[in-house]
Design a protein that fits this description.
Length: 503
């Protein structure tokens, strides 16, 4: 028996799965939650990395409880992208990590972008705009706002890199997750000296050397092997960001398939063999964690919105789905801009939620709930439409995340997207992706010709009972609503900035 651990450290919890490479199935799992730091100023989203490691320990030990630990050969770690983990000379965390959803770095984005010659030049030089979610402005933020902490800075890691460091003692960064820092030129897979100089020249010394995603990070530290009851020979693969690992875990390693994750945030992405640069900067030009590219769009508000509405109207998940089903397509003209935490795509960090179309008929919980679900789904479709405009073809969208578990929500997704959608049998795509990448890494150590496609084949199963084709009449209706939502967002962009002073 050949077993592999896959870890996914997300915004709210850590998931662990044990994957049997012979039977090609997940045979055990574990989970533990961690929390955001509370009572921070608006726009600041931070976590203590120690909470990640503590939760990972719990999740791993749960997953290992009923399996043969001697059979574990590898570990692959997935982590939330873009976070900034600052370490001092001894490798100790200096301050809490600033996360992907932190929007406090708007000013720093402007400074870096200006140093590069503006937004257009930024895209030409590194492939991406400088956005608040990315790592680069977070580093500059610490320099400008916490000079004492910045003076201690000697190592810069991303969240999944920090977990790899915890497991192996090695500071390692692979191309996929690194492409989400806004410091890497995605075309030549190297650090951008211009971005580094816009932050501080010393940053070049604090970044790890970039490595191929097919390479191992290292082997388990003695303390960790003893804690988990695993051999020190267990190999830790490169790992990657949650989107990159989610792509592997949903079989998105060849052209033609897109993955849409309806989780805390929303992401939609598709494998491509060449870089996809968006001159408007709406699609992130990322590398994947297999050697290819992963053009991606991310929204900040998906299940955060549905859960807020569910709690507001005191409904469980079944009741939420019932409410969606009882309201006609388009919610009677009730349209939601779901920017509860600002928004990343479109880039409106100062945005807030706006509901338009309230009247005597629509001012009720069921209409508001459906409008919320339609609103976040159209936000996701903004990205799918843009991918198509950039030449990325998608014949099928594979769904993951909590939102995809609702049949009523899946129907809306199929109709808004205008393409066939289907869920995965194994919903923990990022954790499974971590396990599969570790299989690839271990096998390549013996045979360098082993492909990721051969590893993924048969390991990612579709739940055909969830497959839905779009309803053409509904597609037409949603196209109209999508256009209106975009118009409303554009119209209010300056209003949001003015309104921010009242927060």
């Amino acid at each position: 028996m050949s077993l592999f651990l896959g870890i996914d450290s997300g915004t709210q919890s850590v998931k662990a799965v044990v994957y049997d490479a012979e039977s090609k199935r997940v045979i055990s799992d574990g989970r533990a939650s961690h929390s955001l730091i509370k009572n921070l100023p608006s726009g600041h989203m931070e976590q203590n990395p120690d909470e990640w490691t503590q939760a990972m320990d719990i999740a791993i030990l749960q997953a290992l409880d009923k399996v043969d630990r001697a059979a574990i050969e590898g570990i692959g770690v997935s982590g939330q992208q873009h976070g900034f983990v600052p370490l001092d000379e001894s490798g100790k965390v200096i301050r809490p990590a600033k996360l992907w959803c932190d929007t406090s770095t708007f000013d720093e984005c402007g400074l870096i972008s200006e140093a590069l010659g503006g937004e257009k030049q930024s895209i030409e030089k590194i492939g991406n705009r400088i956005l608040p979610g990315f790592t680069a402005p977070k580093i500059l933020w610490m320099k400008r706002n916490e000079p004492q902490n910045f003076s201690k800075l000697r190592h810069i890691l991303l969240p999944h890199d920090y977990l790899n460091y915890y497991l192996t003692g090695e500071m390692f960064m692979e191309y996929g997750d690194a492409s989400g820092t806004a410091i890497m030129d995605i075309r030549n897979r190297s650090w951008s000296i211009e971005v580094i100089e816009a932050i501080d020249p010393c940053v070049e010394d604090y970044l790890p050397a970039l490595s191929s995603s097919s390479e191992p990070c290292g082997n388990l530290r003695p303390e960790i092997s003893e804690k988990y009851g695993l051999s020190q020979r267990v190999m830790v693969s490169a790992g990657g960001g949650d989107n990159m690992m989610g792509a592997i875990g949903t079989g998105n390693v060849l052209p033609g398939v897109a993955t849409a994750s309806f989780g805390t945030s929303g992401t939609i992405y598709a494998y491509n063999e060449k870089p996809v640069l968006d001159p408007r900067g709406e699609i992130a030009a990322f590398c994947d964690s297999t050697g290819g590219y992963l053009p991606l769009m991310c929204t900040m508000n998906v299940t955060t919105v549905s859960e807020q509405f569910r709690a507001l109207f005191q409904k469980d998940h079944d009741a939420l789905s019932d409410s969606i089903s009882r309201v006609p397509i388009g919610s009677g003209g009730l349209v939601l801009l779901p920017y509860l935490d600002g928004e990343r795509t479109p880039s409106i960090p100062s945005g807030s939620g706006v509901m338009m179309g309230i009247n005597r008929n629509t001012l009720n919980p069921e209409y508001m709930i459906r409008a919320a679900i339609e609103g976040v789904t159209m936000g996701m479709n903004f990205g799918l439409k843009r991918l198509r405009e950039l030449g990325v073809t998608t014949n099928e969208v594979r769904l993951t995340g909590g939102g995809s578990r609702s049949a009523a929500w899946r129907r809306i997704i199929a109709d808004v997207f205008g393409v066939t959608v289907v869920c995965m049998k194994e919903d923990e795509g990022a954790a499974l992706g971590g396990a599969l990448q570790s299989v690839w890494c271990v096998l390549r150590n013996c045979d360098s010709q082993t492909t990721i496609e051969s590893v993924v084949e048969g390991a990612t199963s579709l739940d055909e009972s969830t497959r839905l084709d779009p309803n053409e009449s509904a597609v037409s209706r949603y196209e109209e609503l999508q256009s209106f939502q975009s118009q409303l967002s554009q119209t209010l962009e300056t209003v949001f900035k003015d309104h921010a002073r009242f927060k």
